Structures are given as structure tokens and as C-alpha cells.
Amino acid sequence: MALLPASTGWTFEILPVSQEVQLAVGNAAEVGYVFHNDAEKKRNIEISVVEWRSYAWNREKGIKIEQWFPAENLRCLEIEPGEKKKVTFKVNVPRTARGELAGMIYFSDTDPSQQYKIKFGVSLYIRVSGTVETDVGLSEVGGSREPDKAVQGENLKFWVKVLNRGNVHLRPTISASVESREGVFEIPFKYGTPVFPGEQVVFPGEVAPGKRLPPGEYKMTVRLKEPGLRKDFVQTGVLRVTKDAMRFSNQGIRDGR
To answer: What radius of gyration, in Å, describes the C-alpha atoms of the chain?
Structure first.
């Protein structure tokens, strides 16, 4: 939900804040967002769009956002107080497009009495059917350990660096487990940001206070779930723990496809 606080005088919401559509080359469709004016006055909203992500393989074909998000979508809306209005946009896929097309649609209030002109953006991704390449790997797994006298244990912090070699963005869910003398404990990882093609993103994980991992070697399994993968990516190896650091090794990095 996109909601600006009432204190700004900009009380409205737009749903969804992000949307993904799958289309084959040459096909067209309509996508919709719901705009709710929660203020006590009418709003005049101006719509604009920018290319959120531009990939080399599409730029080389001369593909620009105007080709798949036509100019007719750029218009002004009048929304009455309390009104919920569905706003639809026409999109299409150029025949030479591959991977995904990504845009950011902006909604701006044109009220001249506003001291600042604020615009709010929602993202739109179009995945091009038949051209999607999902290729993900773990470029680094590690961690740190610090004494925690309050709980007579340690602060164990982990990180996983995810590398995207494909041509669409990923939203992976990461989890891991470590086998110690005390048994197996799970490491939850926080979701950070999407991993875009050619980029690496670090996902942090933290173990509940009180766990201990004395220096030594432990079996560790890292799992990555992503809707675009045919199966979960699972990597098992050795976690080597020293006085103040932890490093994971599996005799080389494997990729998931």
C-alpha cells in the first residue's frame, strides 16, 4: 500500500505498489491500479512514467519505454473526495524484447496550493514469455561472532550474497541451517531488495541470542527459494568458524537455473 501521512495533506493510497505481468512478444494487455483519495477535497492527478530499469540486450534493439507503455497512458485524473478509482494502462511487448521491461509510474498532485510537488511511484514489470533466463548463484556466505555477556552466549550474524546472472529481477527467500553439538539450528534471513540482472545483493541473517559456535568446522546448508527457479537452490558445505569470523566453503560455487 502506498500511503502518505495525513499531516502532509497528501492522504491517498495506490494499490498495488508493484505489479508483474507476463506477456508474449507482440502481445498487448491492460494493467490496473486502484487510486484512493482519502482527503476531503478533489484531487487532480498527473500521470508520468520513466524507465525503471534498462537492460543492454533491449537497448541494443532500440527498445524504449514509449514503445511498450504508449503515450496515451499519460493523462490527468480527477478524483473526488473519498473516491476509489481504478486506473488502467495499455502495455505491449515489442517483438525484439527479451527478459523483462521495467517502468515506474508516477502519480503527482497538481494542486498549486501545495508547497511542495510530491509524486509517488509504483513499479511495473513485464516478463517476456519464452525469453526469460533465471540464473542465480551464491557469490559469498559468511558471518561474524561476538560475545554477549547478557545472555551468556554470542551474537551470531550471517550474510549471504546473491548473484543474478539471468535477465529478469529476482525476489529470493533465503534460509540456512547449521549442525552443531547442540543440534541443528535455523538461520532466518531478512528480505532486502530485488536482485536485478548483473547485480549482487547481500541478505543479512541473525541467530537468536544465546547460541554458541566455538571455533571449528560445522555442516551448513543454505536454501534459496525463487518462483522463477524450477527447483529450490540448495548448497551444502563447511562453515569454518574462527575467533571472530565465519566462512562458508563448498569447494566452489554452483549455480541454480
So the answer is: 23
Pairing mode, strands 18-23 and 119-128:
parallel
pTM above 0.85, yes or no: no
Give yes or no for a contact between 185 and 204, defined as CB atoms under 8 angstroms apart.
Answer: no
Could you tell me if residue 255 is inside a domain?
Answer: no
Which residue is listed with cell 536482485? 195
Residue 109 lies in a domain: yes
Count the domains in the chain.
2
- Round to whole Å and give the CA distance between 80 and 93: 34
Same domain, residue pair 190 and 161: yes
- How far, in Å, are 2, 16, 88, 127, 170 from residue 21 at the CA level? 20, 13, 13, 6, 14
Inside any domain, residue 152: yes
pLDDT tens per residue, the chain (257 residues)? 344 433 345 578 899 999 999 999 999 999 999 999 988 889 999 999 999 999 999 999 999 999 999 999 999 999 999 999 999 999 999 999 999 999 999 999 888 877 777 788 999 999 999 999 999 989 899 998 877 766 666 788 999 999 999 999 999 999 999 998 878 889 989 887 899 999 999 999 988 777 788 889 999 999 999 988 888 999 999 999 988 789 998 754 343 33
Q: What is the CATH number of the domain that holds 19?
A: 2.60.40.10
> Under a CB-based contact definition with an 8 Å cutoff, are residues 74 and 49 in contact?
yes
**Domain span at residue 237?**
136-250
